[in-house]
Amino acid sequence: MDIVRKQGVFDHLMVLEKAGTTGQEKQKQDRLDELRSTIVTLRAKRDRLSAETAALKSLQNKLDQGQPLEVDEADDLMQLDQFLLKSRLMQLKDLQTAYHLIGGYNLIENKQGKSICVSFCTAYGDMYLETFNLEMDLRRTVQISRHNIPPCIPLDKLAKENLQTDFKAFLETLSLHLNALAGRKQQISLIKELVGTVEVIEKNQLCNFLVLMCKAQESEAAILCTLEYSDLTKCLPTRVTIQSKDTTLAESPQWKKNQALLMESPVHIALLTLRKMGSIV
C-alpha cells in the first residue's frame, strides 16, 4: 500500500515538473516572439529614418547650391522647417526643466513656438538683483531679435560661439556673465554702505576694473588698491595692486597679506576684515 502511495506521489510530481517546464518554455518562446517583433519594428523605423535623412541632405545640398526646388521638395522643405522648429522647442523645454533644478534663467514660448523669451534673474548672496530679458527667433537659424542685456556684456561674441550650435552653453555662459556683473556691482554698493571710510575712485561699466582709496590705521597714509577682473564670469579679482606714497607700507609683509586677502575674498568682505584687523581706518 505504501509503495502504491509513493508511486502516486512521484507520478504527481513528474506531472507538475513537466507542466512547469512547459510553462517556462512557453514564456521563453513568447519573449523571443516579442523580441523578434521589436527588431522588425526598429529596423523599419531605421530604414524610414535613413530614407528621410538622405532626402533632407539632398534638399539641404540644393538649398546650399541655390538650385530650384520641385513641388514635392518644397513640401519637404516646409516639413523640414517644422521638424527643426519642433527640435529646437524640445531642446528648450529640456533647458526649462534644468532651470527648475539649478536656476539661472527661465524660458517662455512666444508666437506659437516660433520664438522664445529668456529671462535671466541675477542674484548675489541671498539677494535677488536685476532681471534681463532676451527674445530669440527660432525659425530657420536662431536669431536674437530683442534684448535688454547691458552693452558691456559681449553678447555678439557669445552668440557667435554657441548660439547656433549649443543653446545650453550659450544660455549658461550668458547667465554667468550677467550674474558676475551683478555681483561685482553689488559688491561696490556694499563697500559704500558697509565700509564708508573707503572711497571708490574709479570703476568702469563692466565693474571689472576698480580703484579704491583707503587710509592706513597707524600712519593714515593713503593707499590705492587696484582690482582687475579678467574673468568676466567671476566676482573675485584676478589681480590686485597696492600703491602708496609710503613705499615701505605698501611693500610690508602685512600689506602683502592684505593683498592676498583682497584676491581671495569679495572686496567688501575683505575691506571689513582689514578694518577689524586694524590695517585701515
Automatic annotation (TrEMBL):
Gene Ontology cellular component terms for the protein in this record: Mis6-Sim4 complex; nucleus
Coiled coil: 25-62
Sorted UniProt keywords: Centromere, Chromosome, Coiled coil, Nucleus
Highest rank taxon of the organism: Eukaryota
Subcellular location: Chromosome, Centromere; Nucleus
Family: Belongs to the CENP-O/MCM21 family.
The protein's name: Centromere protein O
Originating species: Astyanax mexicanus (Blind cave fish)
